[in-house]
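note to self — DONT lose this again. spent like an hour looking for the file last time. sequence + predicted structure for the chain T wanted, 378 res
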Amino acid sequence: MPLTNEDNLRLNVLLRQNLYALRIDESKMIVDALTERGEARVVLNSNCRDEKYIGQVKETISTHVLGSPIGYPVYIHRWARMGQSRKDESLQNLLKLGEPEAVVAVAHSENLPVEIARYTWWALPTEENARTLLRHQSVIHDSLGQELAIFLMEFLPFEADAQRIVETVSLLLQPGVLSQSDRDTLWKKASHKSAYYPGFLIAVADDLPQHAEEHTNYSDLCRQLTALIEQGNETAKFYLWCHSDKGRAFFQTIKLALKRPAQQAVIVSLFNAIGHHFSALGLTRRFRTIEEIKAFNDRIFDGHCEDVHQKLNIEIQQIKSIIPESKERSLAMLGLAQMSEALLDPLFGGTDCLGSVMRKRIKPVSEPLLEMIGTLEQ
């Protein structure tokens, strides 16, 4: 059964305007449009089941916009999120279909112009879309970035999924997104919700709000290691950083995150964030037990390692030649560099434990992690 004459006429008039984006409220049977003249609305009057009628509306829209009634293939969710490179005209056409999945595809597109990002936000003002748009530098450097940040800040207290909390906090902490007072507010909230801490470690590992004093030997280490660092010794750079106020704030934040984590996703994000910060050392972070990590690091320190890690061994030996007592601290640093979710797989596999049960379950890895931090802090 075709659309009613009234709906057919009003939709065709709407589609012939200079249209930026469409959205369809299927529960209320309403089509909203963003045009060069502002917002417009068509209230649908179905002559059959609402679901079937909405399908006919979408076919009419798709025929006008794409020349085909098939519309956007909404079933290919993964493809829509792969960051395809598309022309601006193609992006604008996707926004005119009234399909949320097509809007998601636009939000994930590479090099998204900020004006199209604005239409994307109008078409689908959800927390997921806000997070996606905040990954674009064009959005961050525009007032739209602040609008999205305010939206996510207001939504964050109601978010229950730990992984999304971590992602949201790390996106909000990108340079230029939040004011300093808003950053301070996020940090204060972290004391009540440990899922915030990994977001800070991911986004601002070198600019954490946590106050810490540099190690008592930091000045001496600067003098001893400066020449090596200037020669390109990356390990010496990290060794010195571990004794700086920034490094010690990093360690204190890890300890705060480990006090009372409630969900597995918090721990997974935390371990990944720790290892990732030391990724320049070139370690693979593939081991599933602390014992394997310690044995591997001993081999690197002693030079009994694969060729790919010989450079790391040389850099460690250069540090040792200047600081003979550096072995334990170097091994602790290498241990931190190999923290990852691979260590957690044997502990979390087949269980969805939370809270105190989870905290007890991760002790085989959390306690050695704290020991490594203690070694570097002493």
